[in-house]
Amino acid sequence: MDVSFEQIRTFFHIYIQILFLLAPFFAVSIFLMMSEGMDSMQRRKAALRTSAAILVLICVFFFFGKPLFSILGITLPAFQIGTGSVLFLTSIIRVLGIGPANHKQVDPDDDFSIVPLAIPIIVGPGTIGALLVYGTAVQGFVEGITTFLAVLAGGLTVAIFVLLAERIEQWLGHKILSMIVKVTALMLTALAAQIIFTGIKGFMAGS
């Protein structure tokens, strides 16, 4: 199968969006916070569980979007508006630095790697909604494969970030990592607004 310029453009467009949605630096900062007090081996195992959970979750939400929409009778524009709203609120919380402090209360003896870290902190409501929209909006086999590969590549990138969390903190330092988290969240607000506007446009066109 020949790869066209349009497919490459679509791949990188969705890949970058997924990166902002999954917020790899935010994931790194939360992982380091929740795994504080663990030794290197324990952190490694927790990172592996979190990474595996992220990949499984994005695949499940991507592929089962259409059946879920059909069963619940939800239209794509309505879900885009709802998803964009949730993502917008989540992004504002990240920009203001409100949410993560509550995560310090997690018992270090508990297995936080899947719940609540993988879901709903990293793969949160906004990300889940966007994955459902991606999976439902694709038309045709080629577009479906291109979109899924972009989503999977985004998930793999975030998984690698989690696995290298300690090294990333050493390379960047805590202050720079915190700044990157807030800048990423700010970009997410723009992406959320675009999802809302697309949903409103689709709703108006269908009404």
List keywords for this structure.
10 helices, mainly alpha
Description:
With 207 residues, the chain is mainly α. It has ten helices and no strands. The longest helix is centred in the last third of the chain and has 33 residues, at 174-206. The protein is globular. Residues 100-106 have low confidence and may be disordered.
Termini separation comes to: 38 Å
Radius of gyration: 17 Å
Find the count of extended strands (DSSP E, 2+ residues).
0
Structural class: mainly alpha
* Largest sheet, strands/sense/barrel: none
Strand content: under 5%
The helicity comes to over 70%
In sequence order, what are the helices and strands, one letter per element?
Answer: HHHHHHHHHH
The best one-word shape is globular
> Tally the helices: what do you get?
10
Total domains: 1
Low-confidence stretches at least 5 residues in length (pLDDT < 50)?
Answer: 100-106
**Overall mean confidence score, pLDDT:** 85
Write the layout of secondary structure elements.
Elements (H helix, E strand, L loop, with lengths): L4 H18 L1 H11 L5 H24 L1 H8 L3 H21 L16 H10 L2 H13 L3 H23 L1 H8 L1 H33 L1
Describe the structure concisely.
It contains 10 helices and no strands. With 207 residues, it is an all-alpha fold. The termini are far apart.
